[in-house]
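Dissemination and training. As part of the outreach component of the grant, students in the summer workshop were shown how a complex can be specified as a set of sequence lines and then modelled as a single object. The example used during the hands-on session is reproduced here so that future cohorts can follow it. Participants entered these lines:
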Amino acid sequence: GQQVMQIPQYQHVQEGEDFTTYCNSSTTLSNIQWYKQRPGGHPVFLIQLVKSGEVKKQKRLTFQFGEAKKNSSLHITATQTTDVGTYFCAGGRGANSKLTFGKGITLSVRP
Amino acid sequence: DADVTQTPRNRITKTGKRIMLECSQTKGHDRMYWYRQDPGLGLRLIYYSFDVKDINKGEISDGYSVSRQAQAKFSLSLESAIPNQTALYFCATSDYDLAGELFFGEGSRLTVL
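and obtained this result:
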């Protein structure tokens, strides 16, 4: 079945450093979503990408969908302590297909 | 008030007991989902429902059942709880299709002793 992979599971950065994480699918996706879960909280939708090569920005966060629509990246510029949490990607294969979540990457930021 | 409400938020039970987790939403969405979260395993889909008359198994439905009582209500049952069902359970809704944005409830933490 479809697999969505996020490696590593944990990353620690110094506040102010940039952070990049990747999401890779075993199959071509129609869309990819990113969610953030704060410690003790629930996942919250960040963004959806649907076009090959698409790049979207949200303040210090930049999301990209690969040209082959099989991978995606999340880049955080100048991390802050408020960026702490677990970031999940989730891939879909079109209308009525199930979203498959990656295992997530937990980011910690040293002040 | 939260748009997606889960009850109970925390529950401790014993092996063999029947447990129901309830989810209600005020977003008017047709689609509802139950996910399970375990450390290191991410979010795994248990069941999903496109509308009141539609119920579908997800990737880990064994040991679980669901009921869609109304558009706004979707409950998850464990007929005979076992310790490896100890987890954090999330209900979610979406408006368009399975590729639409998911709105999650605050979660129900279940411990089976």
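The two ends of chain A are 41 Å apart (CA to CA). Students were then asked to discuss how this feature might be tested experimentally.
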